[in-house]
């Protein structure tokens, strides 16, 4: 009972509280105002400042995150998005910290799996904690890696916390270009690839093979860092307000290869008049080195919603690229809505663009690489002017490269 921890003078019994609770919890209790002895104990919801239950805080609690750790998670998400690492790693890390990887535990949680054993060691409960920390394979790989990683295999802290501590540690000591972050992530990524190869292709990859994979991945990461200065700029200039959204929302990779950002950059935008439903689409080539834009094309159309128009504009620009014989393209759009519709294959996409979405995916799948990124308005300004003109004067046009 709470009253057992309160002295007859009506103040917290600090000695008893320090004795019974962990230091952090005790401090939290002692910092509370002393409850009045004249009231009965009552229930309250500890995950919201008001003590009242809210759906949002309830959901956060059920997902395993308190408001405090949710806040930390937000900081970590932003940090991950700023790291100079392979784009596919970012998406992987984002899934990792949001418990969105298809581990057997996560699948079981969603009612989708029967056997949840680790395919390597046979332990029950294949979770991120197991795959990346407590599995004998993971332990061996970390031991052989060049990093000094404390595995805490008793599992006193969660995987997410363990992961976060290392990223923050390396980042604070080495900065965002940390070589140790690269290695840390490359090991996690390679453990995950090995796990998938075992799971889906019955391939047995041992510690040595995983370490070889790590060195190859690091090589790719170095090439990415050194050879794509233009794209780095685009990446870095993504407005910080968009970083509030998780990186998974911010770009989709629809081509055959998903491991890099192409150098050919196309800005796409739409312009729409809600009274007349008249719509214009525009696209322009952006040269990341000279920062110059060249008009690509534009079209006049009618659309029911801005989203429909953005989807049309995106589709038309992709088809134009194919006509121009391009095979690796990076498209900038300022429509976060379009991106989230393209990304979440499981979520019901917006009904008015179902067919266009399918057409975009179909067209994009013919490219070696087709990446669509959320940009801010400023980055598609030139295209907005083209789209405006196409809408206003009812014109469509298409330029040719060279
Ligand atoms: Zn295992």
TrEMBL record:
Start and end residues of each Reverse transcriptase zinc-binding domain: 53-142
Superkingdom of origin: Eukaryota
Pfam family, one: zf-RVT
Membrane-spanning intervals of the chain: none
Boundaries of every RNase H type-1 domain copy: 268-390
Identification of the protein by name: RNase H type-1 domain-containing protein
Organism encoding this protein: Spinacia oleracea
The gene coding this protein: LOC130469565
